[in-house]
Specification:
alpha+beta; binds zinc ion; 11 strands; Muramoyl-pentapeptide Carboxypeptidase, domain 2; 9 helices; Zn_M74/Hedgehog-like; single chain; three-stranded mixed sheet
């Protein structure tokens, strides 16, 4: 190899290595938040956005209660803002009125919120919770059971409808959650939304707007709460076009997006032009402290 070529190769290698070294120098926020196993001793406050923030003064959801059990305890994600803990207690109590013993609770947030080393882009400010679709069979599950047991799928194989696991109790619990003024939106597998669109009464459909179809979410539903009053550092989610046009229940757009566009994509008439790839958005897993609101530093360093 000529000296010239050698120098070029060396230059290329340096180009490849240097940016990596530079990003390695800055610790990832998910490692920092993931290392904290207790809440910050601060006034409770969600800080930032659901997918880019942290949580001051989170509260631990007791691992077991009269109407709930937290699952996958090894993850230590049964922490949330007080409004979230109250909401979970209330909804799980309601579940007992429709024939369930309560609710199995999946991830809420880490003790101090923040980005996570695995799973979820959101769940960062203590206002998101995953609730299992599996009806509660026992509230006396051991820690080991809670690692091993799986939830159940409510989506049919053709992906267009719910399957036999879907019950009137599921529908009642989800509707109750949607009617709760603390709730901003609920993410579900599209067939659940389609089922609601078919079965909801014509006069009582306003709450349907809060039920949002999204990929996955056939083993659990995800409840997102609004920023509580007075929490100035909390960034409210922008309403979608749907929400802005009053009275819309989102049923047409769900069917359009999921059944028509996603499951049966229209055949392209012309070959699509290769378009420039959109600039890649930084994922929550790559965030450093600089990507989070400034107050998150104090959340992390608090006792
Ligand atoms: Zn979730």
């Amino acid at each position: 190899m000529s000296t010239f070529r050698l120098a070029r190769v060396a230059g290329l290698i340096a180009l490849l290595i240097l940016p990596a070294a530079a990003t390695n120098a800055e610790p990832k926020a998910n490692q920092l938040f993931g290392a904290k196993d207790t809440a910050s001793r601060q006034k409770s406050q969600p800080i930032g956005f659901y997918s880019q923030g942290c949580a001051a003064g989170n509260v631990e959801l007791p691992e077991s209660g009269p109407t709930w059990q937290a699952m996958r305890l090894s993850r230590n994600r049964n922490w949330g803002q007080p409004v979230m803990i109250d909401f979970i207690k209330d909804l799980s109590a309601y579940a007992t009125t429709v024939g369930w013993k309560g609710l199995y609770i999946g991830d809420i947030s880490q003790p101090r919120g923040g980005p996570m080393t695995s799973g979820h882009a959101s769940h960062q400010i203590g206002l998101d919770v995953d609730i299992w679709m599996k009806p509660v069979s026992s509230l006396r599950l051991s820690r080991r059971d809670r690692e091993k047991i799986s939830s159940i799928n409510v989506r049919a194989e053709n992906q267009k409808s719910v399957n036999g696991n879907w019950t009137a109790a599921h529908a009642a619990i989800l509707k109750k959650a949607a009617l709760d003024p603390r709730v901003d939106r609920i993410f579900v597998t599209p067939p659940v939304k389609i089922e609601f669109c078919k079965t909801a009464s014509r006069k009582d459909r306003k709450w349907l707007q809060k039920i949002r179809p999204i990929y996955g979410h056939n083993y659990h539903f995800h409840v997102r709460l609004k920023c509580p009053k007075g929490s100035k550092g909390c960034v409210t989610q922008k309403p979608t076009v749907n929400e802005l046009s009053k009275g819309k229940d989102g049923c047409d757009s769900t069917l359009q997006w999921w059944v028509t566009d996603y499951l049966n994509p229209p055949k392209a008439t012309k070959p699509a032009k290769p378009s420039k790839p959109a600039p890649k958005k930084k994922s929550a897993r790559d965030f450093t402290m600089e990507d989070l609101p400034g107050q998150c530093g104090a959340v992390l360093s608090s006792r």
